[in-house]
Amino acid sequence: MRVKLLYHTDFDALKRVLVQKSVPFDPEVLLDHVVYMFEIEDCSRVTTHQLVRHRAVSYDQESQRFSAATREGVVIPPNVASNEAACKAYDEALKMVYSTYEKIIAAGVPKEDARYILPSAIKTKLVMTLNARSLMHMVWQRTALQAQWEIRELATTLQSLARDATPELWTRIIER
Amino acid sequence: MRRCYSTKAIEDIESELEQKGPEYWKYLLTKAMQDKSLDVLEHFTLTLLVEGASEADVGVLVRSFPYLRATHLKDTDWLFSMNARTLVEIWKDSRGKDFASLVVSELDSRGVSPIFNELAFGERLHAG
Fold first, then answer.
1. CB proximity list for B83: less than 8 A, separation 6 or greater
2. Domain coordinates of chain B in residue numbers?
3. In chain A, which residues touch B (CB < 8 A)?
4. For residue B47, which residues of chain A lie inside 8 Å, CB to CB?
5. Over 80: is that where the pLDDT of A33 sits?
């Protein structure tokens, strides 16, 4: 998985506005106004199904209606990769699914209908924009031990990028 | 701007946008607006200091446009945040047209997003 922070609000500029207006600095005031835009690549559709349950967020995701799926573009969960029997079964199932997908397309069916057979393990790309309040909520929920490994990895990376970009906001909120 | 049918990595999209330049940006934005694929505009966000706005005026705006975020700073000063899609929706609505026009004037005066402003709010340019 690859995550890149494409844009974030200039936190120092917002702080200067508070100073200019003689408003005491309270990080809570800025949570709705600090925005982050991330590019997420090569995470599974299992994870993006979980991700889009966070509602106050804007998403633009690669569509399987138009882009062809490839066998190489799948996520293999560590519990499968480390289990020889499971790994073999997983690989065989993928071979069968992709061979069927290609046959369906070769028979003249559009990709948008052929995709019904594709697995949730398929890798995807998306752009996601959200404010600090929504991101903090997402991080709080998805870094919990009960969260699944892939979205936990994603949430941890998002938190790390956002903290690096706006350290004071995150530090002050966490300290509260 | 990531279109849903693009399989490219973000660096390739960024370098393509850079290489092809403003005419290509205009083409992409025009297509998005014509197709009403306004979701791509949600990634362009604006944060504004709004001065001299009464609580009643702000109340009308935030009740009418739920994606507009307003935080009261002091007296009649507010911090507003919205994305470009929300700004377009406010501009198209009589309850928010005056406010949106002020925002667009501010963007114009600062030279922010001139191509988008011309495409999304072109009517005001013709009217002017």
1. A58, A129, B41, B42, B43, B44, B45, B46, B67
2. 43-127
3. 4, 6-7, 9, 14, 17-18, 21-23, 29-30, 32-33, 35, 37, 39, 41, 58-63, 65-67, 125-127, 129, 131
4. 9, 14, 33, 35
5. yes
